[in-house]
Amino acid sequence: MSTAQSPQPPDPAPPPATLAARVRSIGQRHPGTGLWPRRLAAGLVVGALAWGVAALLGPETEVARQFAAALLCAAAAVAVQHVLALDRRVQDQDRRTRGALAETAAALEDGLRRHDDELRTGLARCTEDLRHLVDTRLPGAGRDEDAARDLEVRTDADGVPDLAHSFADVLAPGPAILGTFVRMEMKRVVGHLSDLTNLTAECPGENHDWMLTLTRAAQHAICAISTSVDREFWNSEPASRYLQAQKEVIEERGVPVSRLFLLQSARELDDKLLRLCDEQELLRIEVRVAVLPELPQHLQRGTTDDFIVYDEEVTFEIEQDLREVNVRTRLNARQDHVQDRMKRFRELWEAGMNLRELEVRVDDEEDGTWMVDQG
C-alpha cells in the first residue's frame, strides 16, 4: 500500500527586483533584437515580388535593372519596418519610464508616510513615558518628606537614559547631534524636576519658558511686581507672548492678573510708563504703580526684586546682580516663602496708584507742581 506523499511546498518566488534596479534596467533592454530575421525575410519577399512585377511589366528590361529595383524595394521594406519598430520602442520605453517613476514616487511617499507614523508614535510613547515619570516620581501635596525622598527623580541611571534613548531612536535617521541634544535636554529637564521635589528650582539667566508655562497653568490668580530693571523687557518679543498668554487665561478661565510697577524714582513717571499701563489695562490686567522713596519706611525696607506669584502657591523670581543685570531665575513653592511674597505684594499694592491717579501724577510731574523726590 503506497503512502500518500505530502504536497511539496512551491518553490519560493524570486525576490522582486528593487525599484532602483528596474529603473536602471530601462534602456538596457533591446526588444527589437530578435526581429531582424523577420524583417529581412519580409524584405526578401517584397524584393521578390518587386522583381516579378518588374519582369512582367518590362520583359525587355535588363536583368540588372530588375534586380536593382527589387533590391531597392526590399531595402525600403526593411527600413520602414525598422523605423516603425523604433517608434514603438520609444513609446514603450517612455511608458515603462513613466510607470517606473510613478512606482518610485508611490514607494517614496509610502516610505515617508510610514516614517512619519513611526515618528509620531515614537514621540507619543516618549511623551507618555515622561508624563508617567513625572506622575510617579514627583511628590504630591500630601506626601511626607520620606515619600518625597523615595520618589526623588534622579538624573543618572534610573529614568533619563531610557527616555533619552527612546527619543534618540525615533530621531535615528537624523543627524547624530540631535541624539546628543536630546540626552542633554532630558538631563536638564529631569534635573529641574528633581530639584522641584524639594519645592524649589533655579536656572541661570531669565527663563521665559517657565514664566509662560506657569501663566498657562494658573487657575486662580497671578500677582506680579515689575521693577525698573524689567522695563526694557516690555518691548521684547517674549513680552508679547507673555501678555498674550495672560490675555488667554483672563478670557478663557477668568483668572485675575494684577501687576504693580515698582519705581526707584519719581523721575520714571512719564508718558512711556503711562502708555505701558494703558496697554496692559486694555488686556484687562489690573495695574498699579508705586514709587519706592515715597512709600512708608517699613515698606521701603522690604525686597525690591521682580517676582510673580501664581495661585498663591509658587513664586517665579528673577535675581539681579549689582549692575542690575538679571542673572538667575528661581521657582519656589515653599509655603512660608510664598506667603511672605504675597504679604509683600499686598502691602505695596495698597500703597500704589491706580491708572487714573497715575495720569494725574504724570501731568503734575511734567508741569513741575509735584515736589516729592525732585532731587
Can you describe this structure in just a few lines?
57% of the residues lie in helices and 11% in strands.
The 3D shape can be described as elongated
The count of strands amounts to: 7
Order of helices and strands: HHHHHHEHEHEHEHEEEHH
Terminal Cα span:
125 Å
Biggest sheet strand order reads 1-7-6-5-2-3-4
Low-pLDDT segments, ≥5 res: 1-7, 12-17, 138-159, 371-375
Helix share, percent: 55-70%
Helical stretch tally: 12
Report the mean per-residue pLDDT as an integer. Answer: 74
Helix and strand content put the structural class at alpha/beta
Task: Report the C-alpha radius of gyration, rounded.
Answer: 43 Å
Main sheet specs? 7 strands, mixed
Beta fraction: 5-15%
